[in-house]
Amino acid sequence: HCIVDEYQDTDVAQHRFLQAVFGESLERVIAVGDVRQSIYAFRGAHPENMDEFAALSGCVPFRLTESRRSRQEILDFAHRVIADDRGDEDPLRAHRGQAGANVVAVASMWQADGVARNAAEQRRIEAAWVAGQIASRLSRGDLHPRDIAVLLRYKTNTQIYTDALMRAGVPFQLTGGVGFYDAPEVLDALAWLRLMADPLDSHAAARVV
């Protein structure tokens, strides 16, 4: 018997591999997954595997409707974002219940102005916009800094957003960000120091260049 977690992130080859091992019907396989969480299409993930698995003869689906991770406000917000696309009728229920706090959502819709920008420039524009929105809401007094969180997928992008928050005069606390010696400006400074100590340090030279 086999249990495969995060089945929405498997690719076609992995699905066929399971069939080669357990038979076309996959009758001794349990697949756990959520196509709404599929974010790895860029590396070959085939979320349709979930639908193909569910369509197999004899497959018995079990819908997981309770979340033990998030509070109800977060689940309700996520449901509103994806419900139209997925056609889900009901949001997940939070095992931990309500947080008892207001949730304020800010959405951005970029206007196409015909200007081509690279990712770094676009990220700086976004960071400035986010910091401006936060500063505006704080100035109205209806929110406190502790009520706001900015979530980033990659900690290496943290610096752009912290710089924008500082320029906007927004107090913040950084959690799980890049360490001091991993910050880009610190890496640059260390590369210059290494290069002065050893002009043949190829890694330092590449960083400086």
Description:
The chain is mainly alpha-helical and 209 residues long. The chain has helices spanning 12-22, 48-54, 72-86, 119-140, 158-167, 184-197, 202-208; strands at 2-4, 29-31, 66-67, 93-94. The strands form 2 sheets. A two-stranded parallel sheet has the order 1-2. Helix 3 links the parallel strand 3 (66-67) and strand 4. The protein starts with a strand and ends with a helix.
Secondary-structure blueprint of this entry?
Elements: E1 2-4, H1 12-22, E2 29-31, H2 48-54, E3 66-67, H3 72-86, E4 93-94, H4 119-140, H5 158-167, H6 184-197, H7 202-208
Parallel strand pairs: 1-2, 3-4
Helix pairs in contact: 4-5, 6-7
Estimated helix fraction: 40-55%
- Let me know the largest β-sheet: 2 strands, parallel
Low-confidence stretches: none
Number of helices: 7
Attribute tags:
two-stranded parallel ribbon; 5% strand; single chain; 209 residues; mainly alpha
Summarize the structure.
By secondary structure, the chain is mainly alpha-helical. It contains seven helices and four strands; from the N terminus they run E-H-E-H-E-H-E-H-H-H-H.
